[in-house]
Amino acid sequence: MVDTSVWSLAFRRDSEQRAPQVAALRTALTGGDSIVITGIILQELLQGFTGPRARKELLEKFAPLPMLMPDRTDHVDAAELRNLCRRAGVQLGTVDALIAQLCIRHKLILLTVDGDFASAAKHCDLDVWKPATAQE
Predict the structure, then answer these.
(1) Across residues 58-64, what is the average pLDDT?
(2) Contact, 5 vs 96, CB < 8 A?
(3) pTM for this prediction
(4) Which pairs from 128-135 meet CB under 8 Å and 24+ separation?
(5) Residue 22 gets which letter from DSSP?
(6) Distance (Å, rounded) from C-alpha 12 to C-alpha 66?
(7) Are the C-beta atoms of residues 79 and 101 closer than 8 Å to each other?
(8) C-beta of residue 56 within 8 angstroms of C-beta of residue 28
(9) What are the sequence ranges of the domains in the chain?
(10) 68, 34 in Cβ contact below 8 A?
(11) What is the pLDDT of residues 68-109, one digit of tens each?
(12) Which run of H or of E encompasses 67?
């Protein structure tokens, strides 16, 4: 799963395009790797773009991606995950807890530049992508 933070970097023309997460996203997109999205990430992306043309283009780009839909259990487990992190001194927002929970449930690697996920992963089964040099 690709977090909003990486999609945003990939779409920005003035951003640091050398971020390893953006390179990993490009590799996944061109290499045929499975990439999924969830509604809240799509919503966050749409909120960042203005105008009907940008909205239409974004919706067209994301239409082929499989959409994970959280169910009641995901929301319950996301709340527990957030509480677990809070008890450990890690601040994980409500939206991020749901994204993390979906990744845990579906055994997905999360591609993100948001350090909160890396902090949360120390206390749960969240698998956060790391550049090859950091994985060794």
Answers:
(1) 93
(2) no
(3) 0.90
(4) 129/21, 129/24, 131/20, 131/24
(5) H
(6) 23
(7) no
(8) no
(9) 4-135
(10) no
(11) 999 999 999 999 999 999 999 999 999 999 999 999 999 999
(12) strand 67-68
d(CA 57, CA 18): 24
Confidence tier at 16 by pLDDT (50, 70, 90): low
Residue-wise DSSP of 92-128: --HHHHHHHHHHHHHT-EEB---HHHHHHHTTSS-EE
How many percent of the chain have pLDDT more than 90? 75
Pair of tokens at residue 93: 């927002």
Please return the burial class of 77, using the count of CB atoms within 10 Å of its CB with bins 0-12, 13-18 and 19+. Answer: buried
With a cut of 80, say whether residue 50 has pLDDT above it: no
The pLDDT-based confidence of 136 (bands split at 50, 70, 90) is very low
Specify the CATH number for 4-135; select among 3.40.190.10, 3.30.70.1350, 3.40.630.30, 3.40.50.1010.
3.40.50.1010
